[in-house]
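Loading example: each entry is read as two labelled lines plus one structure line.
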Amino acid sequence: MRISLDGKWKFREVGSLEYLDGTVPGCVQLDLINLGKLPDPFYSVNEVLFYSLEEKDFEYVKEFYVENLDWQVKKLVFEGIDTVADIYLNDFYVGRTDNMFLRYEFDVSTILQEGRNTLKVILYSPIKEAERLKKIYQSKYEYPHRSWIRKAQYSYGWDWGPRILQIGIFRSVYLELNNGLEITDEFVKTEHLSEELAVVKVFAKINSFEKPRSVEIEISDGEYVKKVIPDVYKSKEGYFIEERIEIENPKLWFPNGYGEPHLYTFKIVVKTSNEEATQIVTTGLRTVKIIKEKDEYGESFIFEINGIKVFAKGANWIPADSILPRLTEDDYKALIKMAKDANMNMLRVWGGGIYEYDWFYNECDKNGIMVWQDFMFACAIYPDEFDFFVENFRKEAEYQIKRLRNHPCIMLWCGNNENNWGFRDWWHIGDPEFLGNRIYKKVLPQILSELDPTRPYHISSPYGGEHPNSEKAGDKHTWDIWAGWKDFIYYKHDNARFVSEFGFQAAAHIDTMKKYIPLKDQTIFSKTLRMHEKQEEGLERLIRYMAGSIGLPKDFDSFVYLSQFVQKEAIKLAVEHYRKNKFRTAGALYWQLNDCWPVISWSSIDYLKRRKALYYESKRIFAKFLPVVEYEDGKLKVYVVSDDLMPKQGKLSITIWNFDGQKLYEKDLAVEIPKNSVIEVFSEKVENLNILEGEWLYIPKHVETAVIGDKIDRGLLRSIVFVSLFVDQIEYENYFVFEKPINLELKPSQFEYEIKDDYIVIKPKTPAVCLIIETDKDVEDNFIFARPEKEYKICLNG
Amino acid sequence: MRISLDGKWKFREVGSLEYLDGTVPGCVQLDLINLGKLPDPFYSVNEVLFYSLEEKDFEYVKEFYVENLDWQVKKLVFEGIDTVADIYLNDFYVGRTDNMFLRYEFDVSTILQEGRNTLKVILYSPIKEAERLKKIYQSKYEYPHRSWIRKAQYSYGWDWGPRILQIGIFRSVYLELNNGLEITDEFVKTEHLSEELAVVKVFAKINSFEKPRSVEIEISDGEYVKKVIPDVYKSKEGYFIEERIEIENPKLWFPNGYGEPHLYTFKIVVKTSNEEATQIVTTGLRTVKIIKEKDEYGESFIFEINGIKVFAKGANWIPADSILPRLTEDDYKALIKMAKDANMNMLRVWGGGIYEYDWFYNECDKNGIMVWQDFMFACAIYPDEFDFFVENFRKEAEYQIKRLRNHPCIMLWCGNNENNWGFRDWWHIGDPEFLGNRIYKKVLPQILSELDPTRPYHISSPYGGEHPNSEKAGDKHTWDIWAGWKDFIYYKHDNARFVSEFGFQAAAHIDTMKKYIPLKDQTIFSKTLRMHEKQEEGLERLIRYMAGSIGLPKDFDSFVYLSQFVQKEAIKLAVEHYRKNKFRTAGALYWQLNDCWPVISWSSIDYLKRRKALYYESKRIFAKFLPVVEYEDGKLKVYVVSDDLMPKQGKLSITIWNFDGQKLYEKDLAVEIPKNSVIEVFSEKVENLNILEGEWLYIPKHVETAVIGDKIDRGLLRSIVFVSLFVDQIEYENYFVFEKPINLELKPSQFEYEIKDDYIVIKPKTPAVCLIIETDKDVEDNFIFARPEKEYKICLNG
């Protein structure tokens, strides 16, 4: 029996006399906002009003009544406390928490009273606690505050997130009352998998004071049903099952784009003389392996799922709110659906956030979204020279691995984010024994070998090769562009084996920007805007890239729109390059899918789940088929990237227009597309394309030591290429211009449009590099390139 | 007897039938401009019209008459040909030139005719010649075109210069007719120097068919006169003198700011039976040494002149025109005077330009400007694996060293610009045997030990320490700021021993910008403007730094002004830091003094010799005394840097104002300033300065992983500190604000002004961070900071 202690609590700052109304799950920040004591931290510069909370201690109190104490086991369970707290029940000390990523169970058999009980949780300032630990342990290393506390690292402020050190009981609290029967450590392991047969092993521990009377496993996927009565064994730790089960003609779990992400449920039912317990494992049958083979470029890094080489397409995931308890299952459903709709097949749960809620993994399971799962360490050295820290983490790892290992979506465990790169290039400490490395290189491999040997483990992201961020082996974070200020054309020089991070910033959706930035501060370098740009000199980078590729914005609105246009163009160029390079490069996960507050960031979906230009573009660049146009050695070339597992026939249509709306060239051709690879399908000298005008212009171009005038035919600056590939009745489009927009002789696009019901129909009379539909509706497509002769019918409530 | 062949010549493109009027000294480019065949290459994007010339060959022809051939020696002398040419006299082949940095003498005794002679010079395309050499020598290395030809490297286009491959006879041509008597290789070496006595050795070769009848050396400095009759010796190479001369109570040559740059002339007169020859050496008496001593930071790099440790203050020098023959002595006089007036004491003749005209060194001699002299190699690998290249360079080095070694201004020979840094960090070839290193490490030390052992030789700039660009030893080029996009606040972290390059761009003077950029293109990212910004992504950097420190410009004019303001603030911050760090840092030469065309660049003086904000600031930051204000650990501190060789007493006045014009604080104090060092003269907690308002604000600030709101008292954002130091009746001023301007609560400054005769008198009512006088006159001071209670009287024709 479970008695929820969620709901209404009381809280106060320690030392204050007055109690206020609080809520669990929740946190101090959320309670104070709900009470009107503090404003929305995301509006304007309100964030700063929340800083002082981090130095304070708080007390949460709940009175509750228990009618019947007639249970052999009485446990108080906290699904999650953020972070350092002492817990008292009826003024008896129950225990301490110091890890946000742990579930805590306390035995309260002797303390719990019939009738009224008072539960008190004293939450301590994480800053002061870190100071206390620093003093006690006296390390010679300067760990930042956040390294001492097992707490979501992004809450200390990140380059896309505010500094809001959440303090509170942020997940459910309940009493667990039973007579000792519990099924734990459930694990469904796929041992063999073919089209004909799957062999799985079902493992579970059964806590019970007596030998279970019956144990049953029921396997179901809606259609298929199989019941198994497993043998029950006894070890010194108790009872357990470990049952080999065969499933004939199994339906496999496939990543998005490769088939259905089929799921099975394994329902384990245990009965004793006086109790019955049920544990349901929902999982999928699939294999995962990373192909690491020496080749001419170094060593491959290719995800092989069910024997198929899969190019990973997707993004990095961060916590979807800086105030976690606000998140609901619907938020996860919506965001994962958006990832799927954008033709992504992988998300990386980044190590500076949280081990995500079950909702996240459930949705990924259902939508075929593969997950790269980091352990929660990011961009810092960690005090694993001290055993207390390692033991704390060990509990965390064991709990999280057991919680997550049945999710078929998770494809990889990864030790941390960027710390091994940091050892080498930022902190210049080589490859140390401690500072986190003890955990990444010793502790984690040992725990995983025991609790989940079914998935690959990767020491860090990035890692592999002679240098942690090598492009010869392992994964790479490509940050010389943007972070390193390099032009995004240099993505074309990146031959990483797997790009687990690369990215480009843009403002949030214009409505989101305007909602959170007061009207008077809607200028490009206002202090308020600068507080909604969390990267050092991020706004400067935005302006730098915008200026260099399309020009300076006229006003706040054009700043927002141009930033999104440039972001989408940069990532489009990168993804086209990476996919064209498959499988030398075997994955492209851009930084980042989502936001945790309204901010200028690398995301494609903003905090309010509004879509930025990049989101719309992601659908195109991650589609199963991607036609890519290049201008190489005086030739216009079209390549087709296919992620299809079958060879296909397609129809490619190429049209070239000038910006006045004249069609200069047209060609239709049938194309044979080999499976899961890249092919050049068109190559023609530009002289034969009716583009050249014979008038020469000079555009500024960098050559060796200077910028000189580069001679170019004016026609190349006045024309645009559209390609349209039909495969299986689906159209895959792309466009190409010969220079960056600032050098083109663009003209305002002319078009007609009408709005019918929920649709807008746009009929261009001249081609457009980018048409923006400005509406408060949730349009299906936007920031589109468009050519004459085609009608663009776009749903306005998409 | 010398017969000049300068003046009117004819020229044509090889293959063309028509001759055009040309001029020598001159070049194809200049002739075509003068003829109206090509427009001003500096206007708009006209530069591109000059590119095609570089692939062409040209013929220059001069007819001249010689009346009397009755001389034993008949030589045809070219002071400089740019570059590859065959020379014919009366259709006889005379010889070939292939080095712009050489003087060529040809014996024409047998070819020269009495009466009419025809001299023909065929100039070859330097691009085609480089291609030809590439084919012949078949190196495994990819040398750029410019590396094959001994020609000014900047003419191929540099990140501040257009690509104009000058082709022509760019220096004087003449016939030298005599009977064999010539004085060459003259060299006045200081062997001992003290206040009481200078010992010099005067060396010269005397070419003569007979033993000279008399030789005399006359030493004079206007006052002092001494005549010496030296011994004449004979070796197998001919006659020579090598005379030890004592000068009692000598007047030394001092760098600007340390005393007079006193000069002596040594007039050598030689007579034979039928001829008399005179050679005048103007030189100064001084010693130079670089103090390289191990210390706690590594190894020092301090110029010691006449036993005095001198902090080098100045800039890098580039050719003052992309079309060299336009330059006149007056140009040099004006520019060197400007360097001196800006309190500079050193210029570096950068290795991508030319060994400068005599005018340059003469003016440096006269003005006490020390010269860091590079040999002409820059930012490339050079084909010294081939002997032809080394032998060509050997002639160049011998000629230039002999030409320049008597100039007291030259303090250092330096092998090249940045090539050894390049070996390491750009081309990743370690420390090669060839690629230029043969010349820098073997050939040059050997030549110099023979021809000029009086000065230090430095292998490259930068060089020294474990890394060529180390901050522990040798000189350093600090380019992580600007080139590497880093904020200029990071200058404060640079502990280089000698900063021979660092810099920050700005637009040219607004009148210069408007003269060369057509009105319609006077927008911030116009193609034309982008062609007047030669660094890759230079404009993007300008915008990035401007935006981050003061905000985006409204229009073209504000773009120009703000760029200059930010440039001056950045270099001010750097120089204050470097000078405060003396002698850990012992020199600060900013990149760059001057321009070779109208361009957005790092210069402080533009092509038309108009002064940018940085020029005015240079006077202040390079002055003998520099008060520096810092805000450190909650305290306002004032330091005084002194380059004076005597301890001094000064009066320091500190006033603090808010931007409304209220005086918040005032303090006068007497200060004791020790000689040639730095002292803290004031330190006060900010609480005691009447600045704080008790109202807290938050400004965006980068901390660890994010930008957060940094709490600051509003008073700090609304006040400005002025310091005024009086020493020897001279006022040295500075100002300080607590944040970058974009964070300040600035207000438009209020002031009155009147114009009287050639002066403007400004009376501020509220303080100003920067007052700009907009006038077409040549104002004495501009971009000034100004405080109430002071009148600013500024000459408008200064």
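The mean pLDDT of chain B is 97.
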